[in-house]
Amino acid sequence: MGLMQYRANFLLQFGVGLSSAVGVLLPMVFVWQTNPVIGGFTLREAMLVSAFFLLLGGILGTVVEPNLGATVDAVRTGTFDHILLKPVDAQLLCSVRQVDPSRLWEVVTGVLVGGWALAGLPPPTPAQILAATLMFGSGMAAMYGLWVVVISLSFWFVRVDNLRFLLGAVVDTGRWPVTIYRGWLRTTVTVLVPVALVTSYPAMALLGRLELQAALGAVAVGLGALLVSRGVWRAALRHYSSASS
Amino acid sequence: MAGAPPAVVVEGLSKTYQVAEKAPGVWGSIRSFWSRKSRDVHAVRDVSFSIAAGERVGFLGPNGAGKTTTLKMLAGLLHPSAGELRVLGHRPYDREADYLSRITLVMGQKQQLLWDLAPIETFELNRAIYAIDRGDYRRRLDELVEMLKLGPLLDRPVRNLSLGERMKCELCAALLHSPQVLFLDEPTIGLDVTMQEQVRRFIFECNHRDGATVLLTSHYMLDIAALTPRLLIIDQGRIRHDGSLESLTREVAPERRVSVAAVDPRLAELGFQEHQGRMIRTVPAEDTNLLLSRVLALNPLWEVGVEAPPVEEVIARVFRSEADPRVEARDRG
User: Are A196 and A178 in contact (CB under 8 A)?
Assistant: First the structure.
């Protein structure tokens, strides 16, 4: 609601959201013009990955990023006190205080792109849709857990802006199918910063290419990330030093 | 309230912060990057006190004395380094929902009001967070709006309110859930005299009407003198005095200033000195009556005044009376 108080800025942010969606899709079209199949994905199949990437960016940008950014600021300035004083879970309160509706454009574009990609592909079975939903859910849980850990670090180090930018850069790798990455980079985007779980794995599930083992691993990573982030958050609260008076 | 358990019990409470230290300038920054030195700052040291339910207590001390740190530990924001504390039977740092919904902490320097929205939005948010029944919320809000005269402010964006108006809205937001214990950290800071008076009266009424326990810190001696029958004076992390203002005055400023509205050589013989058209002498409190009888024996029509030292001076004497090093520096590679 706070964001809607400034109307011009609100409209402008929709424009920014739309242009960032175009920025995701155009390079893929150019790259796939040089080669019809890259990393085992045709352009349409790769667009499915992009659709999930847009959904991820849209959801993170709408719900998670504004809150976590605000939390880091609150810790630095000490207004986090007021969050801790409320008789509800502080992590929950930190996660739902603000939304940035301008980023919903990316969600809308993601749905449109996904619809276009699926229209030219064999229709997925209900089991594949279920698996894709589960993969997307696990991936989002893992990404959320990771963001919570980054924010928790701000209780110790206060300034974590650069870490947030680094994370943003790694998240950007999720726009491409995970199969084009090799070695340590692939491990990084599936386990360390599990962006591939949110973008490539659901797409692979819809295409019927995801192995059961990988799917179970993704669920484990998602649950593990939630548990670990909860532990780190609680440890961080004990270190909160409440800036200034 | 005889026999009721105390609202606040603090035993041997301590809080030590580790603070990074660096020499000024670029070279200092570079050195600090490679080998960081830190030191321990003992913000609160071995503090013990207890507060009965419904009591109003003033927490007084110079900047950095440990008042706010103690308040933050009581409100569950900070974990103590050592010692025990219980508020309403809870350990504050467990931050149980039941505990947090029975207390409040108002900070004069940190606001909870949503900056770009009207105060009523923050009130509504708190209603949802504290799960206040709509009927109770309406009644309580009407009561607070009436007491604080908030009517015309409710729908204006917070950024357009004055400091005093914001503070009144802060108090309203902090008290909507009818807390039983009020921790108030400098609630009158930066306010003009009229607004200070309004806030003081409001705090007094809250204590009187709801029976809420009040622990208040302030730099303004008037806040303390007007509001809190009991004083806790903290300096350099330690409690220096626990009692009434009168007992403190007896203890640290046991003299009276006798002034006579006349200039007379016979008064000079009694040890008086001339000051701005009056004759003045300071004597130990127990000698005041004797001196007065001697003065009035000289001329029973003289206007004679007897004053205790002003509150500010009494407090300043407490802070001057003791000093010890509270920082123990040590290197950490």
Answer: yes
**Strands, DSSP E only, in chain A?**
37-38, 41-42
- Facing residue for A81 by CB, picked from B98, B110, B186: B110
Task: Show the tokens assigned to A43.
Answer: 């352009």
Question: Hey, are the CB atoms on A88 and B129 less than 8 Å from each other?
Answer: yes
pLDDT digits (tens, 9 = 90+) for B110-167: 888 888 889 999 999 999 999 999 999 999 999 889 888 888 888 899 989 988 889 8
In a domain, A117, yes or no: yes
For residue B162, the distance in angstroms to the closest alpha carbon of chain A comes to 19
Instruction: Count helices and strands (H / E) in chain A.
Output: 11, 2
Task: Specify if A244 maps to a domain.
Answer: no
pLDDT digits (tens, 9 = 90+) for B216-264: 988 777 778 888 889 898 888 888 888 888 888 777 778 888 999 988 8
Q: What is the ipTM of this complex?
A: 0.76
DSSP at B300: T
DSSP labels for B22-69? Answer: --SHHHHHHHHHHS-EEEEEEEEEEEEEEE-TT-EEEEE--TTSSHHH
Inside any domain, residue A119: yes
Strands B103-107 and B181-185: parallel
Q: Are A191 and A218 in contact (CB under 8 A)?
A: no
B157: region left, alpha or beta (phi > 0 left; psi from -120 to 50 alpha):
beta
Domain range spanning residue A33? 2-239
- Looking at residue B90, what DSSP letter applies? B
pLDDT (tens place) for every residue of chain A, 245 residues total: 555 556 677 677 767 767 777 787 888 888 888 888 887 888 888 889 889 988 988 888 888 888 877 888 888 788 889 989 999 888 888 887 788 887 788 888 889 889 988 898 888 899 999 999 999 999 889 888 888 888 888 777 766 667 777 777 777 777 778 878 878 888 887 777 778 888 888 998 988 888 888 889 899 999 999 999 999 998 888 878 776 55
Looking at the structure of chain A, the number of domains it has is 1
Q: How far apart are alpha carbons B260 and B250 in whole angstroms?
A: 23
Apex A87 CA angle, A86 and A91, nearest 5: 75
In our burial notation (b when 16+ CB lie closer than 10 A, e otherwise), range A199-209 reads bbbbbbbbbeb
Query: How close, in Å, is residue A199 to chain B by CA atoms?
Result: 35
Residue at A245 is within a domain: no
Q: Which chain A residue has the Cα nearest residue B128?
A: A88
Residues from B contacting A (CB-CB < 8 Å) are 17, 68, 72, 75-79, 95, 97-101, 104-105, 107, 109-112, 114-117, 121, 129-130, 157, 185-186
